[in-house]
Amino acid sequence: MRSPIQPYLRNVLDGIAERRDGALADYIPELAGVDPEPFGVAIAMLDGQTYAAGDADLPFTIQSVAKAFTYALAIRERGLDQVLEHIGIEPSGDAFNRISVDERGRPANPMINAGAIATFALVPGETAAEKFSAVLGFLSACAGRTLTVDESICASEWGAAYRNLGIANILRAGDALAAEPAVAVEGYIRQSSVLVTTRDLAVMGATLASGGVQPVTRERVIDEEIAGHVLSVMTTCGMYDAAGDWVSAVGIPAKSGVGGGIVGASPGRIGLAAFSPRLDRHGNSVRAVAACERLSRDLGLHLMRIPEVGHLAVREAITNTSVENDIGNAAYFRLQGTIDFVAAETVVRRMSSESVSERYVVVDLSEVVEAKAVALLMLSEVLGAFCSEGKYLYVIDPSGIYSADDIDAHGLAGRVQHVASWQEGERVARERTERGLEP
Ligand SMILES: NC(=O)CC[C@H](N)C(=O)O
Description:
Belongs to the glutaminase family. This is Glutaminase. The chain is of the alpha/beta class. The chain folds into 2 domains: 5-299, Beta-lactamase, CATH 3.40.710; 310-433, Transcription Regulator spoIIAA (2-Layer Sandwich), CATH 3.30.750.24. Helix content is 43%, strand content 15%. It is built from 16 helices and 12 strands. Strands 2-1-7-6-5 form a 5-stranded antiparallel β-sheet, with helices on both faces. A 5-stranded mixed β-sheet has the order 8-9-10-11-12, with helices on both faces. Helix 2 (65-78) packs across helix 5. The longest helix has 16 residues, at 128-143. It is elongated. The relative contact order is 0.11. The mean pLDDT is 92. The structure holds glutamine. Glutamine (GLN) binds next to helix 8.
């Protein structure tokens, strides 16, 4: 059977393709000559499956989309504190090519040119080539294939790099650039000239969306903490002076480039990308912005419009049964899904609201996908209270959601037992009772 997703993406393109407003970036001579018509869109699931339509496999220069990834690399190599010493994380409200520095002389954020040049300077290596090779290696690791450079666009931008060299010189004069201006700008321009496809960008977005694991190679390229930080800065600064519009209309951490590409990373969900060369006055692709807006709306990806699923956390609860059930008069709580704070609140409210008359309490976690630390803490509190009432506690936990270590850490060692099934719980409970053991 054919997946409905590919035709859907085709439909997204068809609805936007007639838009021809916007203009090519012309301050880079070679970019002014690219074909303005291509239009591609792609999404990548966190297991590496991709869906694409239009010109999604056509290569174009990554330009400023690289900034988000080089920033991740610099943090991985230097640590967040050192990177924050050099580059702020406040939206500048200015165009991407302005010398936006804060009162400490740091570039306002890493997503504008000033901040990206300072970020590139922090990448390990002495020369532009050494630093660039680390960047190319990282971009390739995120894309899951070896990326290359468009040499003619690179040379063209380097030949007209007056503004970026000016920015770098001012940063260096203010002690805010950790390399010689020419080294930082040369490497930064090479990084901007890396060729990617829309599909590559979607996969790279998925790498950030998954918390740092490349979905195809399964390589962990950055820590979850770093991924979360980068996504935050993309949310507030990734679309330059259109960030406010972007967050309200699309609500997905993203980064655009003057090559016409936009990468988006919907945390824990998907990576997405769109590409078309004509740009709006902010330097963001007109059609790619429109495509991302449509995807966000149709696929329900807006960060501020998360469906509330916590109320489904308790799938089944059997308490205060007068009849003997399978496990000899046990209370049974079957949980499901991802248990975060909101879900755990429904669980503990349910467990503690009624006085549970049964002597055995079974908590079945076999359909729980993940439990956050706060959820285990809350569950442990309630189980601890059951314990003090003299109940026997059993956990069915085939995928190790509530490990022996967690149980220990919450002071319930020896009081909560893992069992494979209801039946095993009953057997263990009977044996203990027969041997006169306390719960
Ligand atoms: N916004 C962008 O994509 C700008 C990148 C481009 N290489 C520049 O520095 O001007």
